[in-house]
User: What shape does this take?
Amino acid sequence: MSGVLAFVSDGLELVILVYFLLINSFYFLFNLLSLSGILRYRRMVTFVRFGEIFRMPIVRPVSVIVPAFNEEAGIVESVRSLLSLRYPVFEVVVVNDGSTDATLARLAAAFALRPSRSVFRRSIPTQPIRAIYRSAVHPRLTVVDKSNGKKADALNAGLNVSRYPLFCAVDSDSVLESDALLKVVRPFLEDPARTVGAGGVIRLSNGCVVREGQVVAVGIPRNWIARFQVLEYLRAFLGGRLGMSMLRSTLIVSGAFGIFRKDIAMACGGYRTDSLTEDMDLVVRMQKHLHERKLAYRFCFIPDPICWTEAPEDLRVLARQRSRWHRGLIETLFRSRRMFFRPRYGVAGMFALPFYAVFEMAGPFIEVLGYVLFAGHLVFGRIDVPFAATFFFVAVFYGTFVSLLAILLEELSSHRYPRPRDIVILTATGVAENLFYRQYLSLVRAWAFLDYLRGKREWGLMERRGFAKAGQTP
Amino acid sequence: MLSVIVLYSFAYLACLSATLFLFIFARRLIVEARERRDRRTYEEMEGELLEVLTSPSPSRAALDFAQRFRDRPRVLKSLLVAYREALAGKALEPLKVIFERTIRQRCLRELRSRWLATRLQNVRLFVDFSRTEEAVHLVKLLHDKPVVRLAALNALTGIASRDTLSVIFDLFERDPEPNYYAYSNVLNSLGQRIEPFVRASLRKPLPVDKHALLIEMAGRLLLRGLYPDVVRFAASEDRELRIRTARTLGRLLVPASAKALSGLAGDPRWEVQAQALRSLGLLQDWRTIPLLVKGLFSPNWHVRYNAGYGLAAFGLVGVLQLQEISRQKEDRFAADMAAMVLDTVILTGGAA
Assistant: This one.
């Protein structure tokens, strides 16, 4: 019996080791691709005057759609930031998704809203719209008040009401840099026939000073949970998504800041209201739609338009957020299972979806399995302590190395952290996160898998503090 | 064996991480030092450049400036690009002189670089500072990658002569994968002088998308002389061409186009109907009001929407019609649309 157990245990160890090697090789490859991508991007935009679009007689107008549910803390600041974006023709459509707090009242007071008798096409079915307001002081602002139907439903209502051929979905707790729209829209101007979506970088506003809807000073947050996330976002966006986009394997354009062609999104039926990660779900369905019609397309990731957003600073809220993301990922992968390994769906079907399934969806399970095996061996005295310790340090240093690559990518792309001390803090964070944070998130994500199997579909509450409170002087 | 591999991996990764950290840190310090130095140079140059621009003889002062700073091309390029943003017309001449005397030769050399990004950067400088005689270098780039091709086209529009216009149209007609958005901006910036070239191209058998763009341009640039060439596309079998024709006729405002537009308002495709109704409104031929009123009762949202705004474009007469329709009870959709248009017109003062 113990022989069988030892055999199973050795087999599992081998699986875990191979998995560890494969996943790290892939991420290393993505980082290298990102590095070359960022260097190329830097050279390609030298002497580009993003402002020249203002002189162009014909521009592609953009509707910025902002779903808001109980966002009274920061909605006015967010909308102000959006209205001050530099772009020749755009509108901001805020969708109040049945908020029970003073979101609508604050908007009405700050922007002098008055009811409008707008008639729009209900191309995508949504929860009833109670009223549409226009601002008497900002002609670009429209506010839609509707019954609660969750984020995707609010975005669909925004799509119905919006007027322009491109739309940019922005979270109401986010702040866009003033030139973010100019930068992110560039692929649509350079290759208008093929570009259907583009995304920029999401950064954390924790530790930054936000004034009048703009981040005026960038700093590292004091809270360690937020610090870990700063590094995590750098790795995910600059290392992961840029690398994936260079392999034409983009499956996620962040819901916090992404721009899409409206006609394609509408043709796919808009956002799916019962999805936990409506952003990923839409991108996957758009790819399916385009592949099935044999239309050439591309999703781009641009490394320097930046959207600042607030991250949770306590483990409970973070766990809820990550659990939802992971359940959403599983749900989207499950729904698109017919695309797996079918050449008809191009790189998405042959590489991106299987990659997400094996390394993102199943990854936490395999990681947790590794911890369990380790604990088991420890209990039964089967462990070679020096070997285990060295292996642990290999994992730590590999993690640190990948984090350092992400810091390098940040230095080469937008170079937002101004003090050399920030590099030291970020590197220390990169070492420290291997000691608890990573293991915690793996557990949360593995638990999310079980929750998904048990049928848990709710979002979980997120606490918003508003930029005034979240922003600390660095 | 495994222990040895792991041990070596550990040592290797530890060294690699430490090296990478030192590299990032050292790079940051070097970059910051260089930025400080460049900023000082930039400020010094900027002060001198302002003196050049305000001196009684800017061209002569520009020569002295170029002589003095020719060995600092990196900062000079960014200064020239920044000031190009702020200046226009004759005030640009000193910048052109400085460009010619300092970095022109280098840029010309780099236009032949094997690196796409290098070619692109240098074409962009030519967009700002090119002279007519430079066209020969730029034309060569019209067979480059699309992104360089467009930058070269942009540069050519700045020095458009009859020959370069002919080159641009020739390229447009032969371009297998044209970026219509970029072409429309290029043609738009060339202005009304493109009329003979547009006419010639409209008479050639080109792909539908290219004809569509040319028709659109005729409307945007108000090339009324092209009316006979445009109006014949109203009978085209292609829906997109009929839409563009309807839109352009609404911009050209040739009274004779009411007949063609009335015909298009009865087109079987709603997209064409909607555009024709909007254009009829702009034409303000009172005999077409019944068509617009009929359009407001269409089952299609877009047709109603455009008919509503078409009526609003008539001014008071249209507003009265809209009021009447908004009060009737037979067709709620028409009433809602009329009410919305009236609401917008009153809010923005948008009635003609």
In short: Residues 209 and 223 of chain B are 19 Å apart (CA to CA). Chain B touches chain A through 55 residues (CB under 8 Å). The first helix of chain B runs from residue 2 to 54. Chain B has a mean pLDDT of 86.
